[in-house]
Design brief:
The structure is a single chain. By secondary structure, this protein is an alpha+beta fold. It folds into 3 domains: about 35-145 and about 345-355, Immunoglobulin-like; about 145-325, Jelly Rolls, CATH 2.60.120; about 375-585, no CATH class. It has 9 helices and 25 strands. A hairpin with a 5-residue loop joins strand 3 and strand 4. The longest helix has about 55 residues, at about 530-585.
């Protein structure tokens, strides 16, 4: 194949290679300019989940500590979207509170999967689309098993159920506190309560069980106070505090906090599960004990706060009451405790990406935007060198493959004639040359036979002088030398790419860094955001130089080894032919 046609074929393949390397579909929607990566750490160093959790509502606390781009989003946050990490599946979400003025937001997302003891699951939060309408879905944030969620974030004190079951309170005389744990909470003075009427969705069924949880902070440790209570059919299930410790009661059965004590003025996550013939008490996501008991079917009023005459009224704050009509796993409860509090060990905040001109957010778009003219010049030169190097390597490989194949065919024909002692007859040399016209062995053989025919007498006893034999050898070795020059043609392109590529890239990097620091000195702005993009872009030139040199180095060594092998075979063949000529014509 000629180099010109090979070059054209390579150019035609470049667009296909570019499309193949593109991470198609990674960016969810090109109308959104930015996204934030959110991770979930279920390892022992994080939330320490022993079981995987699915369809869990996870709270994302956005603030200047982890999100500095409220100015890039709409003032009301209606352009926010939660999407799976692969950019294919939008997730259900809603804001409990969005305050762009104070740069603070509380975002609930229904996460499809949190893998046990792993930190591999991720999602993306997209923002930065001024034309977007709100897409939050409060009820859709919770799975069908969640029967009641009270955020207590309504400023007017008219608390509502956040789930699609609409189990709204019928009585709510607690005071709304906008500065509570999660966006807003409810303050109780000992006599206040929130009452939710019984419903078909809000009940304890022994076959499916029940889960209830709440965040609690009390001002003084009561002798006995009720946090949550459900009563019906003459029985009651209560979650409360006794002597500064959490307590779970179902009829005459109770489970008490076995270790530690709930400190005054500190938020704690209290939870209980009932299912599988047992009830379990949790404090801050840790099981405090369980008791096996028969579970009654319980349907009736759910009370938050003041409940029974035998209890002291609760004085303090309660936030994020969550009741499920199924018995959740210990990891589910632990995930809630480790993601909703101030120390949210489950949630990790990753990189901030911006959509590039190709519609895919990545760091490469940022680097490309900060490349200086000299860096672009170096990169284009390196790209041109790489194209030439690839053309040489591919063309040379095709050339050597053809030679090696032709040499094998020639040797087969030569060995067949040699057994008849006709191989050194000048009259049959044209027949062997016709068999393998591209063979290097055939070329030197033909040259040797030409020289032999010139020196043999026309008739009689054929004898060659020693000088004639050496002349034949010299002619054949000259042919070998010219063949070697042809074999090595254009290999200098690879040596230039190997030695010149890294230095050219280094030159581009040094000049780019100089320009970056000169711009910083002129503007007087010294911070990592001003330095990092320019330095990263400058280093792209070095990467380009190495991208030329590394494949060229591998290709050069491989091709050079094959060229040496072909030349060695040819020289061995010359020695054999000359020796046989000297032996036959003596």
């Amino acid at each position: 194949m000629k180099l010109r046609s090979l070059f054209a074929s390579l150019l035609l393949c470049l667009p296909v290679l570019a499309l193949a390397s593109d991470d198609a579909g990674s960016w969810w929607n090109e109308d959104w300019q930015y996204r934030k990566q959110i991770g979930f750490d279920a390892t022992p160093a994080g939330a320490d989940l022993a079981e995987s959790v699915t369809d869990a509502p996870v709270l994302l606390r956005l603030s200047t500590a982890n999100f500095n781009y409220f100015g890039d989003a709409k003032p009301d946050g209606t352009d926010f979207r939660a999407v799976s990490a692969d950019g294919k599946n939008p997730l259900k979400f809603h804001f409990e509170k969005y305050d762009s003025a104070n740069q603070m937001a509380f975002l609930w997302v229904r996460v499809p999967q949190i893998t046990a003891a792993a930190a591999t699951d991720k999602i993306h939060v997209y923002y930065g689309n001024p034309d977007a309408d709100g897409a939050g879905e409060v009820g859709g944030t919770y799975d069908p098993g969640t029967a009641l969620v009270l955020h207590f974030s309504e400023a007017d004190g008219k608390f509502k159920d956040a789930t699609s079951y609409a189990n709204n309170p019928s009585v709510a005389d607690a005071e709304a506190n906008p500065a509570s744990l999660i966006a807003g909470g409810a303050k109780f003075n000992g006599a206040q309560k929130v009452t939710v009427p019984g419903s078909t969705s809000l009940r304890l069924v022994p076959g499916s069980g029940m889960t209830a949880s709440a965040w609690v902070k009390f001002d003084t440790a009561p002798a006995r106070a009720t946090i949550l209570a459900m009563e019906g059919q003459g029985q009651a299930l209560t979650l409360g505090i006794e002597a500064g410790r959490a307590q779970l009661r179902l009829g005459s059965v109770s489970v008490n906090q076995t270790s530690g004590i709930l400190e005054n003025g500190t938020w704690h996550h209290l939870a209980m599960t009932a299912g599988g013939g047992r009830v379990t008490l949790y404090v801050d996501g840790v099981s405090m004990g369980e008791v096996s008991t028969s579970l009654p079917e319980l349907a009736g009023t759910l009370t938050v706060g003041a409940y029974a005459s035998g209890s002291d009224g609760f004085v303090g704050e309660i936030d994020e009451v969550n009741v499920s009509k199924v018995a959740r796993s210990a990891s589910w409860v632990r995930a809630a405790a480790r993601s909703q509090g101030m120390a949210a060990m489950l949630v990790t905040f990753g990189s901030d990406d911006q959509r590039d001109s190709g519609g895919h957010g990545s760091y490469f778009g940022t680097i490309a935007k900060n490349l200086t003219v000299d860096s672009w010049a170096v990169i284009f030169i390196c790209f041109g060198m790489l194209v030439l190097a690839v053309i040489v390597m591919v063309g040379k490989a095709i050339y050597l493959n053809a030679i090696e194949k032709q040499n094998r065919l020639f040797l087969a024909a030569y060995d067949a004639e040699k057994t008849k002692e006709d191989a050194l007859d000048p009259r049959i040399r044209m027949d062997l040359g016709t068999v393998t016209p591209a063979s290097t062995l055939g070329g030197v053989y033909a040259k040797g036979m030409d020289e032999l025919s010139k020196r043999l007498p026309p008739a009689g006893h054929m004898v060659l002088a020693h000088q004639s034999t050496e002349a034949i050898r010299a002619a054949m070795e000259a042919t070998v030398t010219r063949q070697g020059q042809k074999h090595s043609a254009h290999m200098v392109v690879l040596t230039i790419a190997i030695s010149g590529g890294p230095f050219l890239g280094l030159l581009g990097t040094v000049v780019g860094v100089m320009i970056t620091f000169a711009a910083i000195a002129a503007s007087g702005e010294v911070n990592v955001n001003a330095i990092a993009p320019g330095v990263a872009a400058a280093l792209a030139a070095t990467v380009a130089g190495l991208a030329v040199a590394i494949p060229s180095l591998f290709g050069y060594n491989w091709l050079n080894l094959r060229i040496k092998a072909v030349s060695a075979d040819t020289r061995v063949f010359v020695d054999e032919v000359v020796a046989r000529i000297a032996e036959k014509y003596r």
